[in-house]
Known about the structure:
Low-confidence stretches: none
Shape: elongated
Number of strands: 0
Number of helices: 2
Number of domains: 1
Helix content: over 70%
Amino acid sequence: MRENQHHAIEMLQRVDKALRTVEQHIHVNMQTMSAQQFIAAKRSLQNARADYEEATSYYTAGSFK
């Protein structure tokens, strides 16, 4: 079980890093995006971040086994 916990922590850290990278790319490229593309990208990022936060809280609550 300890190995699963370690793996879950690593996965959450990788997802967090990926989300931050996407956020940076959106910020850097927002001037070349249409308004619709920008809004869609931000919405997708917000949804992904919410899923990440839910997974993190699920794990930290001790529900992950």
